[in-house]
Write a structure and sequence with these properties.
Blueprint (H helix, E strand, L loop, with lengths): L1 H7 L1 H16 L7 H4 L2 H29 L3 H15 L4 H9 L11 E6 L2 E4 L5 H23 L5 H22 L15 H14 L1 H4 L15 E2 L4 H11 L16 H13 L14 E2 L3
Antiparallel strand pairs: 1-2, 3-4
The structure holds heme C.
Heme C (HEC) binds next to helix 9, helix 10, helix 11 and helix 12.
Length: 290
């Protein structure tokens, strides 16, 4: 079993490295490269088959050579391999990466410093530490080259770029979504087209209480310049959107009408100021001046 694993384990390892390399070098946006370019799947598959075939060929050559050995040589070979597999024992590996002298042999590396009984050992640097250190040097060289010689983007620069991209995305979004009007930024519409749409919305939703000519009924007269809840486009927009005082009967329309529609109907109402409705309700609220 051990044999089987050690004979095949390199294939997925090499294959993964291969896949990783293609992902690294082929620019495929947010997707995996092999999804973006299906031909790559074929290439990778061929590579995998090649690796498997190679392994089978190597294994049979090994087998033929083994069979051609004399009994004595076979035994020697098996013993040597047993020895080799011991290298994969984790205790052996651990000893290797630390390369420390066992306590029983420490006498050999003792230095002749002696400070009040505290002695010093001339230990080797542990290989795991030493090679990690070398790796940082290599990394630093790459880092230095990329950021200071090739002028790669630093964090501040990356931030700037992302902010610019986001800004563009927001503008793009606003272009396609004009429904971002609210009581703060709403403006009075005066185009005939908008006022017509406002009139239609008014006829469909509001005349039961405000009368078809907005002269008032259950709700107040909307054509005079007296306002209970404040005049001007911002206040009117706010009233239509959020509703009147509790219990008076004027509901919040923001769940029924879109912001632009509220803007249109509010503009329409304001455009009615001074019109003379048939049965005007007497003025309520305060005289509004801008
Ligand atoms: C169910 C009856 C009813 C309907 C329908 C109705 N309103 Fe009202 N509206 C009222 C009442 C009642 C008030 C007074 C609210 C208050 O006193 O707080 C009012 C107040 C208002 C005011 C504020 C008037 C002021 O003097 O400040 C505006 C503007 C208004 N309505 C617009 C509309 C619009 C636009 C629609 C249709 C989308 C509409 N209303 C639909 C009953 C209604």
């Amino acid at each position: 079993m051990k044999n089987l694993i050690s004979g095949w384990v390199w294939i997925p390892a090499v294959f993964l490295i291969l896949v990783g390399t293609t992902e690294y070098f082929i620019d495929s946006g947010d997707n995996f490269a092999f999804i973006e370019y299906p031909i790559l799947q074929l290439v990778l598959l061929v590579c995998l088959l090649f690796l498997i075939a190679l392994n089978i060929v190597l294994a049979s050559i090994k087998n033929i050579m083994f069979q051609s050995l004399s009994e004595e040589a076979k035994e020697k070979y098996l013993a040597a391999r047993e020895e080799r597999l011991k290298k994969f024992d984790w205790k052996v590996i651990l000893r290797k990466v630390n390369d420390a002298k066992p306590i029983s042999e420490e006498r050999d590396i003792e230095l002749d410093h002696n400070y009040d009984g505290i002695k010093e050992l001339d230990n080797k640097l542990p290989p795991w530490w030493l090679y990690s250190f070398y790796a940082t040097i290599v990394f630093a060289a790459g880092y230095m080259f990329y950021f200071h010689i090739l002028d790669g983007d630093n964090q501040a620069m990356e931030y700037e770029k992302e902010m610019i991209a986001a800004q563009l995305a927001v503008e793009e979004y606003k272009k396609n979504a004009p429904d971002l009007v609210d009581a703060e930024n709403v403006t009075l519409l005066t185009e005939a087209e908008d006022l017509q749409k406002g009139a239609a919305i008014f006829q469909n939703n509001c005349i039961a209480c405000h009368a078809a000519d907005a002269g008032g009924g259950i709700g107040p007269n909307l054509t005079d310049n007296y306002w209970i809840l404040g005049g001007g486009i911002k206040n009117v927009f706010h009233t239509v959107s959020e509703g009147g005082r509790a219990g008076k009967g004027m509901i919040a329309w923001k769940s029924t009408l879109k912001p632009t529609e509220i803007q249109q109907v509010s503009s329409y109402i304001i455009s009615l100021e001074g019109s003379e409705p048939a049965n005007p309700k007497e003025a309520e609220g305060d005289l509004w001046t801008e």
